[in-house]
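Table S2 (text version). Query chain:
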Amino acid sequence: MLELAVLGLLKERSMHGYQLKKSLSETLGPFWQVSYGALYPALKRLRTQGAVEEVFPKTKVGRRKNVYRLTDKGERLFTELLESVGERDTVGDDNGFRVRLAFFRYLKPETRIGVLERRRAALYVRLGELKQRLTSRADDYTLSLMRHGMDSTERDISWVDDLIQAERRAARRPRRGRRKTPAGAKEEGA
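Corresponding structure-token output:
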């Protein structure tokens, strides 16, 4: 997921490591923190794959910071990673879903709906598992924690339902250039 997040941020603009770390925190919030010990090896892997390149390599500029930018190969890898949603990404990896959601604008509407529907299905599985565990013998604190997990999952399901409905409404809207009058007739020149 870190590679996807880095590629997504570099798709928006070139950055050096400190800027990337800061942007990751700003984009993904407190749910997902990354250390330099994880970021720089990820950048090195992406550079080795040809997905990112250094704009100002240290050997040429001296003490200046390395600035990374996305390559054409990186654009393709970003799209591939963003569109590939595996079982792990929807069921057990909340951060994976959050990273994808941060870059949803780069997906086609039908792909976004598919990702959201898989997320909703995974949340229903999680809710079912929580409900089954609730019947087990547990102390009051554990039961309270389980109920909290159920409530959070139900709120997440409602939130994802709202996102799906918004995507479907947006897909039904007329495209730009096709304006309609209040009566529903097409305007002249549309």
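Notes on Table S2: The longest strand covers residues 67-70. The mean pLDDT is 83.
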